[in-house]
Amino acid sequence: MDPQHISVPVGGGMHLHCALSGPPGAPPLLVVHGGPDWDHSYLLDPLTRLGPRRLVLPDLRGCGRSSPGPCSFAAAARDLARLIAHLGLQSPDLLGFSVGGQVVQRLVLDHPGPFGRVIMASSTLWPVTDADFGPWPERERRRAAESRVWAAPGPATPALVERAARAGAPANVWRQDRIAHYRRVLDRVHWSAHWLRTLRAGALDSPRPAEGPRRLAEADAAWLFLHGRQDMVFPARVAERAAALLPRSRTVLLDGAGHMAHVDRPEAWTTSIETFLAHQS
Questions:
Q1: Which PANTHER family is this protein grouped with (predicted)?
Q2: Which of 76, 134, 243, 245 has the fewest CB within 10 Å, making it most exposed?
C-alpha cells in the first residue's frame, strides 16, 4: 500500500510534508531523514517492510515538500515536537538517519517526550573529521568524485545537492552490486538547497547540542546504534563509543555495509530494528 501524504502545521506559517505508512493503531515510529537537503523517500524501502508499525516520515523544514522556512537544527527539532503533538503520537519510537540522528538528539534533549526507544542509524554524537578514519585509501578513492562536485565553484542549488549525492554513491554504498538500485532510489528524492545556503552563509547552528553526549547519557531512553562497518561518513567506532557511554544502549555493526547500510544490507538492517523494538523497553 502506498503511503498517505499529509501536510502538518508546526507554527509560524510552517508546514511539514509527512508520509504515513502502516496500520493507524500500530506503535508509531518517527523517522527523521538525513541530508539534510534530501527528503524522506530514500528511507521508505526497506522501512515499509518492518512488522506492524505506524511509520511517520516527515520532510524536515526546508526539505522535500515541506515549507522553506529558516533552517536550523533547533527549529527542526521544535518542528518535530509540534508534529508529534499535532498527530497525537503516544510515546513514539524515534529513528534518526545520519544528520537526522543529530536532529533526534536535539528533540530528545530540548523537547523531552515521553518518547519510546531511540535508533541512531549511521549517525554520530560527536564531530567527525577525515583524521578519525585513519589511513584508508579506498575511502579516498571512492569519495573523490563527490569531493570534486563540492569543490567546484557555483551557487548552492538543488541540482548541486543532487549531483553530489549521485557522485557520492560509490562512497555511501559499499556493495557495488547495489549502486544501480541506490541510484534509482535517488530518482525519487525531492532535492533542495535551503540548508546548504544557510551553511554557506555561516548562519547554521551546531547540529550537536551543548554537552550532548553527557546529557544524553542522563536521558531515560533505550538506544540502538545501527551502523555499517564500512561507513565512510561517520566511522563505525563512533557507534561503539556511543553505546559504551549511554546506559541501556547497544550497537549493531553490519559488515559489508557503508553509510547507506539500509541499501547495502536491507534485511539485516530491518531485522536489527525489529529485534531492538521487540525486546528493548
A1: HYDROLASE, PUTATIVE (AFU_ORTHOLOGUE AFUA_2G14860)-RELATED, MONOACYLGLYCEROL LIPASE
A2: 134
